[in-house]
């Protein structure tokens, strides 16, 4: 037998049926153990209180889209809580791939810890806020205390329910909306605005730590005459408890609340989930997602979706945080930092 | 008593009947108002929309995950505290050393510290910007916002239960029996298994039951280190809070009723043990 013959015999032997099947089995086994890790992506979305219902629905839509486009399963886990508290957890190492919080300042705080660039808000369209909301009043059916606008909240005997601006994002929007109203009415007189908001908070019997807590206080514990609430939260209360129990009152002026979203760079780069995380956030801007947002009572950004829901979201004069307050960092510093305006008026009121 | 009666004193317990009745009635009313009623209302609320809704709430994946997680955390934390409790009370009761009082005080510490603080200390230690956080992160080890953090917080909070139960018991029992065993040639292990353990078994069981009840019910400390990831780091008490905040009252109370039942089982086990081994228990517990 020549050398060549022997070699080919050896080759034939090596690739004999038996060995081949063993090899195939081995590969299959390896695929089995590796495959789930590869085809399965898990994202963690750390969000604030009132978005629970929205993201349940959105996550399903995203998983379907991701599956169709990439043939992979993606599971999105959710964590909800007060916006400031959630930001704190991410800073302390909660492995959020994306954060979808109530206001930009809370994401700024995460950026300050180095987890994402300080220019994060320019990375996505519309100030990185794919949906917006505003602050409205929820009153008891028939509006027995005749609350029509911000002035009515100051009347003696009116109990106002709002969460604590120190811990709740929604409460900070509430507070700033009241402030903006007073400025507008009194020709930008800061002293009067301070007096106005101070009087308002003297009518607040209890400060819950988060928006959802306040809603529960108003709707279930039946405390107070008016709840200052996210528009979406107010609509949700009507849906949950029946439109025969509460009315929504839209004030003459409110604030454009932009709850922003971003990828947490340090986490997605470590976990290798950047692609999915970015696709997840981009999908928020798609017509399908905008529709889901509108259905869950968030104001959509896309004009064609907004047009379809125009009767749900009344036109109201909205001031912006950048236009009226010089951005979140300035507003936070001036109003909500220790010893800031809120501390001054709230302590004086006690 | 007899002597007193004989000399004509008003018997000290003459009006005992109605005083006793009043006391019992007060105690019962109190129990009814603050214990039985809330407990019943948990079950009433949970079953308000029928048994189907009740079961649906319990077999829902996030609820199952929460129940599993609670049992896992308790299954790790309780044995740890069992070992620690026996070791600590052994060393405190049977040996004399300097700083013993300090050690006893330290064991009591978790009782006096607010659970929120207990959680925060672990965030300070293992958080991303904490003492050991950056190192752990670089090693890919996640402590807080994951199961290890939940276990740590639970262990801390339930730390004193076993030890507190055993220390007075073992101190009272003294060293004589162990000394006798050693003199008769038993090894250390033999002494422990055959002399010490049988002496303390009822106290130990008590401590473990209490420890377990608290481990499963702990809210504050666990809430701080949980991160509240649904289906992953939510224990049952946290899951109840979430459901409640989502206006899902039936589900919230359904899960709460499972917690309540676990507590009731603990209570029943304790009562059965007392009833079955009452005499022995009394002998060891004085």
UniProtKB/TrEMBL annotation, chain B:
<comment type="subunit">
    <text>The complex is composed of two ATP-binding proteins (CysA), two transmembrane proteins (CysT and CysW) and a solute-binding protein (CysP).</text>
</comment>
<keyword id="KW-0764">Sulfate transport</keyword>
<keyword id="KW-0813">Transport</keyword>
<protein>
    <recommendedName>
        <fullName>Sulfate transport system permease protein CysW</fullName>
    </recommendedName>
</protein>
<keyword id="KW-1003">Cell membrane</keyword>
<dbReference type="InterPro" id="IPR011866">
    <property type="entry name" value="CysW_permease"/>
</dbReference>
<comment type="function">
    <text>Part of the ABC transporter complex CysAWTP (TC 3.A.1.6.1) involved in sulfate/thiosulfate import. Probably responsible for the translocation of the substrate across the membrane.</text>
</comment>
<dbReference type="InterPro" id="IPR000515">
    <property type="entry name" value="MetI-like"/>
</dbReference>
<dbReference type="Pfam" id="PF00528">
    <property type="entry name" value="BPD_transp_1"/>
</dbReference>
<keyword id="KW-0812">Transmembrane</keyword>
<dbReference type="InterPro" id="IPR035906">
    <property type="entry name" value="MetI-like_sf"/>
</dbReference>
<dbReference type="GO" id="GO:0005886">
    <property type="term" value="C:plasma membrane"/>
</dbReference>
<feature type="domain" description="ABC transmembrane type-1">
    <location>
        <begin position="67"/>
        <end position="268"/>
    </location>
</feature>
<dbReference type="GO" id="GO:0015419">
    <property type="term" value="F:ABC-type sulfate transporter activity"/>
</dbReference>
<dbReference type="InterPro" id="IPR005667">
    <property type="entry name" value="Sulph_transpt2"/>
</dbReference>
<keyword id="KW-1133">Transmembrane helix</keyword>
<keyword id="KW-0472">Membrane</keyword>
<keyword id="KW-0997">Cell inner membrane</keyword>
